[in-house]
Every structure is written in C-alpha cells, then in structure tokens.
Amino acid sequence: MSRLGDLIRTERVRAKLTPKQLAKKCGVAESYLVAVEKGTKIIADDQARRILKAIGLREQTEADFSLDDIAATVDLATVGSPTAKTVARPVAKPEPEAELVASTGGRAPSGSKNVSDTEEKNVGGSIWLDALTSVLKHVPVMNAIMKPIDHRLLPIVAGKIEGANPDKVFYYLVPDDSMRGFRVHQGDLALIVPAHSPIDGAIMLVEYNNHRFLRKVKKLADFTVILQSFDKEYDAETAQINECTFIGRAAKLEVTL
C-alpha cells in the first residue's frame, strides 16, 4: 500500500465510509478508489485533495503540508515504530464487516462483529497529523533582527534536529557578504544549532558590541577569541569571550542558485 493510499484509506475508515460510498461522493469508480488505496494507481494531487475533502478532512489540517511533503516523508505503516521517540497511535485494521456497518446505519449484519471500542479509538481521529508532528518540524527563518519571515520543513531524527532540540534550531538569513570568503553569501540560509560557548573553527552566530553577525571563531588560550570575516579581504577582530554572546553554530548552509 502506498503512503498516500494508506492515508486515504485511514481517513475513509475514520469517516466510516465504504469504498463504494466514498467513490460515489467523489464521482469516481469504486475500482479506481480501491486501486488508489492499494497503491497500484497513480493519482494526481488535485484528485487526491478532492478525495480527502470528500472524506471530511479539514482544509486547515493540510494547509502547511503539500501531498508531496507527506508522500516523501511519512510512511504511515511504519511511523509507529517503537524506536521512534514520539510514537503515533497504532491503527487497527478493520474487519471487512466494519465497512458494512457504515452502510447499514450502524447495525452489523447477522453473524458479523461490531468494531470494538479500542478499534474505534484507534481509527477515530486522524493519525496523519500525529505522524507529521513526530517526523517533521517547521523551522523558522529569522532575518537580521531575529524576526521570523519564513519557514522550512526539516526531518526530526530520534527526537532531534542536528542533535539539538527541534524547538531551538532556526535558519538565519545571511544579511551581507562579510563571510563570502568562507563560501557564505548574502541571501544564504544558515541552519543555527544552539551553542553558548565558542567552538574553535566553527562558523557561529555571535553578538558583539551590539552587533549580530556570522563569524568564524578561533579560540585563544587566554579567554579570548578571534572573530574572522572575509568580504573582499580577510579581517579578524580579537574579543574577550565574556564580552561575546554566542547564539549558536552554523550546522548547514542552504544556498539558492
């Protein structure tokens, strides 16, 4: 089953719709819908959105995530792995009769079983958003005055991003070319991971003399650091460590070509 097909089927079961009922609501053939859920049929994004909307999925729940984001990063079949720090609720596979209950007004056919309370809780409420929040994070993009102006989606690995608390990392929009000699140009996005002490050889976001900037740091033995920049030519400024505020180190750089 494909991840998108798994999502559609999960939401359909949550809405207590049979494939035939949902297909009728969407104006597609039942066989087509079943093939989409099984992952044997390629479906366009607009058609997928129409199906999810017909199920009753609220528009705001998908406003921040495209279907490409979901299909590329979320495997609903495996996201509940016990090795993950945040585990999504497991979804019980419904018995075939459970789908018939929806079409008979909530009454199970003779000889069939009703969906148990546990199964109802498992399917009730979408696991889609639970899965997304455990594997993706909206990381803010900050400008030179540390105001959020955008965001990027980053994966969370073992509960962390680049080894740090996901709520503490952010992108810094490089405001000038003072670091282009170190291959950091104006308009690039530097992913900043919290670090409040100088790291020798690292490019760090530093506050010094009421200015905030990226600098390559060189630690000296006498509680001083050299803050290195390189625009048209190399420059270095010696500063006392206790006079600097180290915000974090640049772990990655995102460049727009």
Describe this protein with a few key phrases.
257 residues; alpha+beta; 8 helices
Give a written overview of the molecule.
The protein is an alpha+beta fold and 257 residues long. The protein has helices at 3-14, 19-26, 30-38, 45-55, 67-73, 96-103, 117-123, 127-135, and strands at 136-142, 148-155, 170-173, 189-194, 203-208, 211-219, 224-230, 234-240, 245-254. A nine-stranded mixed beta sheet has the order 2-1-3-4-9-5-6-7-8. The longest helix has 12 residues, at 3-14.
Spatial strand sequence of the major β-sheet? 2-1-3-4-9-5-6-7-8
Largest sheet: 9 strands, mixed
Task: Enumerate the spans where pLDDT stays under 50 for 5 or more consecutive residues.
Answer: 59-65, 68-104, 106-126
Number of strands: 9
Portion in helices: 25-40%
Give the N-to-C terminal Cα separation: 37 Å
Number of helices: 8
Strand content: 15-25%
Question: What's the alpha carbon Rg, rounded to whole Å?
Answer: 26 Å
**What pattern of helices and strands is seen along the backbone?**
HHHHHHHHEEEEEEEEE
Which structural class should the secondary elements be placed in?
Answer: alpha+beta
Instruction: Please state the overall shape, judged from the principal axes of the Cα atoms.
Output: elongated
Mean pLDDT: 76
What kind of assembly state do the chains in view correspond to?
A: single chain
